[in-house]
Amino acid sequence: MADIKCPICLTDAELNNSKDFGRKKDYICKVCGPYEITGTAEINLENNSDNYRLSGWIREHQEFKREPPKITTYLLDNVLKNLPDYKVSEKQILFLRAIERRTDYPGAVVKMYKEDYPLAWTKNYEELKFILNSLRDRGFIYIYTEENRLNKGLIETKILSRGWDYLDEHSSQPAFTDRAFVAMSFDKKLDTVWENGIKPAVEKAGYKPHRVDKEPHIDRIDAKIIADIKDSKFVIADVTQQKQGVYFEAGFALGLKIPVIWCARKDEEKELHFDTKQYNHIFWESPEDLQEQLYNVICAVIGKRKVSQEES
User: Fold this and answer.
1) 32 by DSSP, 3-state: which?
2) What percent of the chain is modeled with pLDDT above 90?
3) Least confident piece of the model among 13-22, 150-159, 279-288, 303-312
4) Is the pLDDT of residue 188 over 80?
5) Which of 42, 71, 149, 236 is the most exposed place for a label (fewest CB within 10 A)?
6) What is the dihedral of CA 295, 180, 190, 226, to 10 degrees?
7) Cα–Cα dist 159/176, whole Å
8) Where are the alpha helices (DSSP H) in the chain?
């Protein structure tokens, strides 16, 4: 393996494999994690200020044991367009939960490193140190590491009682009250439904639409999807093309008593699964039709969210 620079975070990485005459490369990066990327997508990454969020997205694949992403130019454009931009308080929650996942038992000390900053979706290790100090100041964690060792990249910490109380209290509540989880087929034919229908309707209502970029035919739901649904205020389930995964995700949300807004293209009204026909559905004929109807339903059922000046 040759030591090179990761094209995303620009730290030392390894080239695990080169395929298709060098047009596809498999990288292993301590910061981002493993991923495959095409040459054209790698070129498009140059001088992109959003690369740190791409590191967070790839690292989540590794964290929740998903397959390493295969980044093409098409996927890169769509991912960068829809990556979340977390607030400071949200980054604190994300890293607190990362510590929780590494804790063997309450009171155990967890060791982490500067390369773990994407777990909080921070831009760099300096921002992660701010997040750590914020968690400490809130009484959620204790930091054992002396400042000089912390500056060198070693993190030794444990979750305190107040932190466990917070995690227990919010385990069944959405972490992000402004997030709408979108379950739908990711067939390219439905891209306009997302871009011109669902996404603008959710944003107009004051919420952030969140879509997991996975292959549309996957027949299992992984830990990342479950965690994202738990963290969402409500779920939009568009069952157009009758994907089993969409029904699964909607059913999981219903089991958690998370509101679900059902949608389907009008010509598939008779194709709906008999178990879900009793729920009210938005039947749409065009993305613009869906946008109007969905916005009205969100405002009526969930309530229009007031967006602060900091968010606007």
Assistant:
1) coil
2) 57
3) 303-312
4) yes
5) 149
6) -150
7) 21
8) 39-44, 51-63, 73-82, 88-101, 125-137, 147-151, 161-169, 191-193, 199-204, 223-230, 244-255, 287-297
- Give Cβ neighbours of residue 148 (< 8 Å, ≥ 6 apart): none
Three-state SS at 311: coil
> Under a CB-based contact definition with an 8 Å cutoff, are residues 247 and 281 in contact?
no
SS (H, E, C) 146-198: CHHHHHCCEEEEEECHHHHHHHHHCCCCCCEEEEEEEECCCCHHHHHHHHHHH
Longest dimension (CA), the chain: 65
CB burial of residue 169 (10 Å; 0-12, 13-18, 19+): exposed
Chain position carrying tokens 């990066």: 29
Residue for token digits 């979750």?
159
Q: What is the bridge-based pairing of β-strands 110-113 and 154-159?
A: antiparallel
Q: Retrieve residue 277's tokens.
A: 């026909």
Report helix, strand and coil shares of the chain as percent, to nearest 5.
45, 20, 35
- The pLDDT of residue 216 is above 80: no
pLDDT at 224: 77
Contact 207, 180 (CB under 8 A): yes
Q: Which tokens in the block code for residue 234?
A: 């409500």
Within a 13 Å sphere around the CA of 46, how many CA atoms are in the beta-carbon half?
5
Can you give the length of the chain in residues?
Answer: 312
Q: What is the pLDDT of residue 312?
A: 53
Q: Which residues contact 77 (CB under 8 A, 6 or more apart)?
A: none
Residue 67 has pLDDT above 90, yes or no: no
For the chain, the straight-line distance linking the first and the last C-alpha, in angstroms and rounded, comes to 46
Pick from 83-87, 180-184, 306-310 the range whose average pLDDT is largest. Answer: 180-184
